[in-house]
Write a structure and sequence with these properties.
- This is DUF2550 family protein.
- InterPro entries: DUF2550.
- By secondary structure, the protein is of the alpha+beta class.
- It contains two helices and eight strands; from the N terminus they run αββββββββα.
- It has two domains: about 30 residues; about 100 residues, Pleckstrin-homology domain (PH domain)/Phosphotyrosine-binding domain (PTB) (PH-domain like, Roll), CATH 2.30.29.
- About 30% of the residues lie in helices and about 30% in strands.
- Strands 1, 2, 3, 4, 5, 6, 7 and 8 form an eight-stranded antiparallel β-sheet that branches.
- The longest helix is centred in the first third of the chain and has 30 residues.
- The relative contact order is 0.15.
Length: about 140
């Protein structure tokens, strides 16, 4: 094989890997939000000095779930029941998080577990509204 053929094969293989990776990320995102549940970009970190990890937050009828942006798993890394989740007050973040424009940070607690989330302001408002509203079928007879 000539060096030109080898270079073409390496380039074709690189293009295939990049297209395959992008297709996988797209397909995984579609599978995570496939049943119409809201999904938004959200970063998460354990403890105040930890590293921010970008991911997807999904709101279900009774659960808040967080998925890492990369990785093969279709199961959430963090899943909290709506009734046990407590979000603190949002505060602007001085440090930039790639993928999130002007993020706000909020401490999330559920029992003894806690971590910090970062959202864009509109996504935080949506999560706060979801958290404060009544889940379907719960206290429907309130007058």
């Amino acid at each position: 094989m000539t060096p030109l053929v080898v270079a073409e094969l390496v380039l074709a293989l690189l293009v295939l890997v990049v297209v395959g990776a992008l297709t996988f990320v797209w397909a995984r995102r579609r599978l995570i939000s496939g049943d119409g549940r809201p999904v938004m970009l959200c970063a998460r970190r354990e403890g105040a000095g930890g590293r921010w990890r970008l991911g997807l937050a999904r709101l279900g009828s009774d659960r808040f779930e967080w998925f890492s942006i990369v990785g093969p798993s279709l199961r959430p890394e963090v899943s909290w029941s709506r009734g046990e989740l407590d979000l603190g007050t949002a505060r602007p973040l001085a440090e930039p998080i790639p993928g999130l424009a002007d993020p706000v940070a909020v401490l999330g607690r559920a029992g003894a577990r806690s971590c910090e989330f970062a959202f864009v302001p509109a996504a935080y408002t949506a999560v706060r509204a979801w958290l404060e509203s009544s889940p379907p079928g719960y206290n429907v007879n309130v007058t």
